[in-house]
């Protein structure tokens, strides 16, 4: 028996209509359809239905073939589009010929009821095919059939098929598109002419990005958006700054002239960055009088690094400024084709897009698809068909658009914004274009792409292509196109003339405005000024009781109940452990009206089961958060992150940069793991103040300590952070008491300036009986950069041991066991900025001592020693020796016996 398989479309209105008619009167439909529907309940069948074709008429079978054709175009039409402006697309099989769907030219004038499916009603095959050809195979190719939500599919199909993906714009709208294209094209050619050979990473070949972004602002404002946060790498950045953000042309031209920004205070050590890395913000008014705030985040050459930063900034503003409403602000990420396909952080950020801790209501992704990465051809740049294949992870629609068809580009981006606002998910625009010159303007692309660049040389720019289209259709005349070009060129020349008179550039977007108002840059004198971080005894005790009390009507695991009983007992014993010190820091900050946000792998419980900030009830998935029940507890958020360091650390840095009044914390599962996010540390945490005048108060918690757990669970790489330290750019701390940790965390928000804090936190010390603090340590004193030895008399001391972190307790145990009063142990709690004056005072105090020794458990080429050795050499506080593990290329041994022997050697040698 013959069988014909119909690949059903979940929302097929045609089949549904036939079935409803059949149910009312079986004789109202063709005999073949009667046989088809017998025993089949529509909507309950499988994805593929086998049909007995013995008694089905030929026409009925062809109706199914027409439906298959419509489905085929929707599903694979993007493979057969005219989206590449400079070369032929690759061939894909099977194709879209009529024969592919069991149809032929003889059927073209036959009327098929399947036309209902695309909104035509009963129509000739010729008309049905033309509609879907126009919709899915012209300048826009749409990928969306993998979306698992029938409503979204239906909405996209309805919108695109109704318009045939062919925009209809008024004469004024067309002129606006042309004017934006003109500005984009002329700006680049002007820079290329006036500053020959200077790098600018031009937009040439992809200038349709500018009218696209312009339209995003207009459309977005109509849909309720009040703010856009943009992240992009260097290609086209200057054009976006000038023609979208509104950065004055005179300023950009002055930067090309080599003018520097006025140094407000030489002590701040501003080094600057190349012009195509800088950020900007501005306020614009749309044609309809609506106000939009625009921000372009600064970005290093590490291409996609800015993605998580932007997402974090947007989420921060959603939480802080828009009361959780993501429809008021949207992130726009502009990628290169090679970067979006090749950089792993893109995948991380995409995976974050729907997670509670990181979602921002959907991102508009625009890919400037140059079809080449530096000198790498697209065939060598990815394995997937498209550079945007990462979109499929989140079932996000992708629109592939011909960059030479400016109207199609504007149409697609408007559809993308509408989709984002309606469904709160990501959407991707693959802007197929080309790069007219090499990677930079001094590069010769013909070295590696000779055939491609022969085509590009002869190819008209997007403005010329669009102007010709408008002239041909009678929307403008030739003189109009020439007039707008000359007018803008003359304006740029006037701005260049004005730039020559500029001596020093003035900062147009100061750092300390908006959310940063009231804060200021830090000066050297501020760093060691005592900050009042202590709280009153009454407040401390009240909050301690609140966060250790569990509700009686909820059933918790027995171990959790016992843990909280033990915490409550700490109040009476006046001995608070590490977890209580940390949680009390959060509670007191919340009580002060601040926001606290923590994320990282397993942070709710804590990798070492010490924190338990979120409790899960025994008999359900219900969560209980003790800190949410204190005053201000609604501003406490703590999220277990996806298994990502790079993306999540970048996100939290962005969050902290947009809201300096929040304590934003990222905790590594083990300190060693932060190096998966080394780029964020290097390009943002350590250098942003120097490069971009952008402060940040992010806290990084890195569990650190040599405990015989092997190379990857021992060292947070203190040495790497210290080698990045200069000009008081960061705070590096390794505390030994819960109270000092409490004050360190509170100090982040109590000061009127912000610095990143990298704090090396303990593992075994979390439950060490000696690692406790009294209430007075929280309420009577502030943070101590150095903690001296109170158990010895200075006059009796012959050797002073300086150390930091966990090893202190090993040294203390030996000192007490041997009753050594001639050896003092001094803890340096803040490694950087180095507490020079306090160390000088220590040296002066122990003037009878002949040895001042640095002791660390890390290898000699690691830990704090390399920095302290370099910093204090030939000074009055130079160390006489170092005691540590031997130099090594690996942070720690994997053998417990060897670890114990090494540790004993260090401790014994310290007291020899």
Automatic annotation (TrEMBL):
Query: Which InterPro entries does this entry report, sorted A to Z?
Result: 2-oxogl_dehyd_N, 2oxoglutarate_DH_E1, DH_E1, KGD_C_sf, ODO-1/KGD_C, THDP-binding, Transketolase-like_Pyr-bd
Keywords recorded for this protein, A-Z: Oxidoreductase, Thiamine pyrophosphate
Family listed: Belongs to the alpha-ketoglutarate dehydrogenase family.
| UniProt GO MF annotations | oxoglutarate dehydrogenase (succinyl-transferring) activity
Name of the featured protein: oxoglutarate dehydrogenase (succinyl-transferring)
- Free-text function comment from the UniProt entry: E1 component of the 2-oxoglutarate dehydrogenase (OGDH) complex which catalyzes the decarboxylation of 2-oxoglutarate, the first step in the conversion of 2-oxoglutarate to succinyl-CoA and CO(2).
**Which residue range or ranges hold the Transketolase-like pyrimidine-binding domain?**
576-768
Q: What cofactor does this protein call for?
A: thiamine diphosphate
Lineage of this protein's species? Bacteria, Pseudomonadati, Bacteroidota, Sphingobacteriia, Sphingobacteriales
Q: Which domain of life is it from?
A: Bacteria
The enzyme class is oxidoreductase
Q: SMART domains annotated for this entry?
A: Transket_pyr (SM00861)
Tell me its EC number(s), please. Answer: 1.2.4.2
């Amino acid at each position: 028996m013959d069988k014909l398989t119909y690949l059903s479309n979940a929302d097929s209105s045609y089949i549904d209509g036939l079935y409803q008619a059949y149910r009312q009167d079986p004789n109202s439909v063709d005999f073949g359809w009667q046989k088809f529907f017998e025993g089949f309940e529509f909507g309950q069948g499988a994805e593929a239905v086998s049909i007995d074709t013995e008694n089905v008429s030929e026409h009925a079978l062809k109706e199914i073939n027409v439906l298959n054709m419509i489905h085929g175009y929707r599903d694979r039409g993007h493979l057969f589009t005219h989206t590449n402006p400079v070369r032929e697309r690759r061939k894909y099989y099977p194709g879209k010929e009529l024969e592919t769907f069991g149809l032929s030219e003889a059927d073209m004038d036959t009327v098929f009821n399947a036309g209902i499916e695309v909104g035509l009603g009963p129509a000739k095959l010729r008309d049905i095919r033309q509609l879907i050809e126009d919709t899915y195979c012209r300048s826009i190719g749409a990928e969306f059939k993998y979306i698992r939500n029938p409503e979204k599919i239906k909405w996209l199909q309805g919108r695109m098929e109704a318009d045939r993906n062919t925009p209809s714009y008024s004469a004024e709208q067309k002129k606006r598109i042309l004017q934006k294209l003109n500005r984009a094209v002329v700006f680049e050619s002007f820079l290329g002419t006036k500053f020959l050979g200077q790098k600018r990473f031009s937009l040439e070949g992809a200038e349709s990005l500018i009218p696209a972004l312009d339209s995003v602002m207009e459309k977005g404002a109509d849909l309720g958006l009040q703010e856009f946060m943009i992240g992009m790498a260097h290609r086209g950045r200057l054009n976006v700054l000038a023609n979208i953000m509104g950065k004055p042309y005179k300023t950009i031209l002055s930067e090309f002239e080599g003018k520097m920004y006025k140094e407000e205070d030489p002590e701040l050590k501003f080094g600057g960055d190349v012009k195509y890395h800088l950020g900007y913000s501005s306020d614009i008014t749309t044609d309809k009088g609506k106000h939009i705030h625009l921000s372009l985040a600064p970005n290093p050459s590490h291409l996609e690094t800015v993605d998580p930063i932007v997402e974090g900034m947007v989420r921060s503003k959603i939480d802080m400024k828009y009361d959780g409403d993501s429809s008021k602000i949207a992130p726009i990420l502009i990628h290169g084709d090679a970067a979006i396909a090749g950089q792993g952080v893109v995948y991380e950020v995409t995976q974050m897009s729907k997670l509670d801790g990181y979602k921002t209501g959907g991102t508009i992704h625009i890919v400037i698809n140059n079809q080449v990465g530096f000198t790498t051809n697209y065939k060598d740049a990815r394995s997937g068909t498209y550079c945007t294949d990462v979109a499929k992870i989140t079932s996000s629609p992708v629109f592939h658009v011909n960059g030479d068809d400016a109207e199609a580009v504007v149409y697609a981006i408007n559809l993308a914004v509408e989709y984002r606002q309606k469904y709160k998910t990501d959407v991707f625009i693959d802007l197929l274009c080309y790069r007219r010159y090499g990677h930079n303007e001094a590069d010769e692309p013909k070295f590696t792409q000779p055939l491609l660049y022969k085509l590009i040389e002869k190819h008209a720019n997007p403005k010329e292509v669009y102007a010709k289209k408008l002239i041909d259709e009678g929307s403008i005349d030739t003189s109009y196109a020439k007039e707008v070009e000359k007018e803008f060129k003359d304006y740029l020349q006037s701005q260049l003339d004005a730039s020559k008179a500029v001596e020093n550039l003035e900062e147009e977007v100061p750092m300390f405005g908006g959310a940063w108002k009231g804060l200021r840059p830090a000066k050297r004198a501020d760093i060691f000024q005592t900050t009042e971080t202590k709280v009153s005894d009454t407040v401390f005790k009240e909050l301690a009781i609140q966060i250790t009390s569990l509700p009686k009507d909820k059933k918790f695991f027995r171990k959790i109940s016992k843990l909280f009983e033990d915490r409550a007992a700490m109040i009476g014993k006046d001995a608070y452990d590490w977890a209580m010190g940390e949680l009390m820091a959060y509670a007191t900050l919340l009580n002060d009206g601040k926001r606290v946000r923590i994320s990282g792998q397993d942070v709710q419980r804590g990798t070492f089961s010490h924190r338990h900030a979120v409790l899960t009830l025994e008999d359900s998935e219900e969560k209980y958060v003790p800190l949410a029940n204190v005053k201000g507890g609604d501003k406490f958020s703590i999220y277990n992150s996806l298994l990502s360091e790079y993306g999540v650390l970048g996100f939290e840095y962005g969050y902290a940069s947009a809201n300096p009044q929040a304590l934003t914390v990222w905790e590594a599962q083990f300190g060693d793991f932060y190096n998966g996010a080394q780029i964020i540390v290097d390009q943002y945490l350590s250098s942003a103040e120097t490069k971009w005048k952008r402060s940040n108060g992010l806290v990084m918690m890195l569990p650190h300590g040599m405990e015989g757990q092997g190379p990857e669970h021992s060292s947070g790489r203190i040495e790497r952070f210290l080698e990045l330290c200069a000009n008081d750019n960061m705070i590096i701390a390794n505390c030994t008491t819960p109270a000092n940790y409490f004050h360190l965390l509170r100090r982040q928000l109590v000061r009127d300036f912000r610095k990143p804090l990298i704090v090396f936190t303990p593992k075994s010390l979390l439950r060490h009986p000696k690692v406790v603090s009294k209430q007075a340590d929280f309420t009577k004193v502030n943070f101590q950069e150095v903690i001296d030895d109170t158990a010895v008399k200075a006059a009796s001391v012959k050797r002073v041991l300086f150390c930091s972190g966990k090893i202190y307790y090993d040294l203390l145990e030996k000192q007490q066991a041997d009753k050594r009063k001639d050896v003092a142990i001094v803890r340096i709690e803040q490694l950087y900025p180095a507490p020079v004056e306090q160390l000088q005072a220590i040296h002066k105090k122990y003037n009878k001592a002949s040895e001042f020794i640095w002791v660390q458990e890390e290898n000699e080429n690691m830990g704090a020693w390399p920095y302290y050795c370099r910093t204090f050499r030939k000074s009055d506080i130079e160390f006489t020796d170092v005691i540590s593990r031997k130099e090594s290329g690996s942070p720690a041994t994997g053998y417990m016996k060897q670890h114990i022997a090494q540790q004993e050697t260090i401790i014994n040698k310290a007291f020899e």
